[in-house]
Design a protein that fits this description.
Blueprint (H helix, E strand, L loop, with lengths): L2 H10 L1 H4 L7 H9 L8 E5 L5 H8 L7 E5 L2 H10 L4 E4 L5 H4 L6 E6 L8 H14 E11 L14 E8 L6 E7 L19
Parallel strand pairs: 1-2, 1-4, 2-3, 4-5
Antiparallel strand pairs: 5-7, 6-7
Helix pairs in contact: 3-4
The chain binds S-adenosylmethionine (SAM).
C-alpha cells in the first residue's frame, strides 16, 4: 500500500479518486472472489489506484498476463507498473475502454472501483454501455460503491444483478455488486406453439 501517494492524489483530484483511503484487504479479496476461474479471456480492472485490488486478483489466481489495469492518474500508473511489472497497466480513461482493449480480445470480467457516483453522469452512462458491448456473454462485471442504498449509476446498468454484499471492514463500508450481461435466451419459434388439439 502507499497511503502517502493516495492522500496526495486525493488532495489534488478528490472527485476522480472518490475514496478517503485505499480499499481494505477484505474488500479487495471479496471483489477478486467474484471473478469465476476460467482459463480464457482477459480480466480488466478499472481504477487500479495503488493496487489493493490488483494484488487480490493475482492472489485469487488470475495470471498476470491475463490481467489489464486501466488507471487515469499518472502517479498511480507509475506505482502500479513498479509494483506489478508483469501486468499490463494502461494509462487512460475508462470512458475510452473500447479503444484501450486489444482488438478482438475476449473479456471475461470487468472489476471496477471507479467512483461512478462522482463521475459526470454522461461519462458513467458511456462507461457502462461499453461494459455491455465488450464483455463476453458469460462475463461478469463487479463494482463496489460506498452508497449502500441505491446509487444513481444503477439506472444506467442494463444488466442482471447476480449478487450483492456489504463489506463492513472497510473505511467506509462498501457494497459489492456483481452483474451479468447475458441476455435472456429467447425461446426457439416452435416453443411458442401450443400442442395440437386432440381430434
Ligand atoms: C476509489 S479509488 C480505488 C483505488 C483502488 N482500486 C482501491 O481499491 O484502493 C478509484 C480509482 O479510480 C481511478 N479513476 C477515476 N476515474 C477514472 C477513469 N475515468 N478512468 C480510469 N481510472 C479512473 C482513480 O484515479 C482511482 O485510482
Amino acid at each position: 500500500m502507499a497511503p502517502g501517494l493516495f492522500l496526495q492524489e486525493l488532495c489534488s483530484r478528490p472527485g476522480i479518486i472518490g475514496a478517503i483511503c485505499p480499499s481494505s484487504r477484505y474488500l479487495a479479496r471479496h471483489m477478486a472472489r467474484q471473478v469465476p476461474h476460467n482459463d480464457k479471456g482477459l480480466v480488466i480492472e478499472l481504477g487500479g489506484g495503488t493496487g489493493a485490488i490488483t494484488q487480490a486478483l493475482l492472489n485469487h489466481g488470475i495470471p498476470p498476463e491475463r490481467l489489464m489495469v486501466v488507471e487515469f492518474s499518472s502517479p498511480f500508473v507509475q506505482r502500479l507498473r513498479k509494483r506489478f511489472p508483469h501486468v499490463n497497466v494502461v494509462q487512460g480513461n475508462a470512458a475510452d475502454l473500447s479503444r484501450l482493449v486489444p482488438q478482438g480480445s475476449r473479456i471475461h470480467a470487468i472489476v471496477s472501483s471507479l467512483p461512478l457516483c462522482s463521475l459526470p453522469e454522461p461519462m458513467t452512462q458511456s462507461i457502462l454501455q461499453q461494459w455491455q458491448q465488450l464483455l463476453h456473454e458469460d462475463g461478469v462485471a463487479v463494482q463496489f460503491t460506498y452508497n449502500l442504498r441505491s446509487p444513481k449509476w444503477r439506472r444506467h446498468m442494463q444488466a442482471q444483478q447476480t449478487s450483492s454484499k456489504i463489506v463492513w471492514a472497510n473505511l467506509p463500508p462498501a457494497n459489492i455488486t456483481t452483474f451479468s450481461f447475458r441476455t435472456a435466451k429467447l425461446p426457439a419459434p416452435h416453443e411458442h406453439l401450443s400442442p395440437e388439439p386432440p381430434r
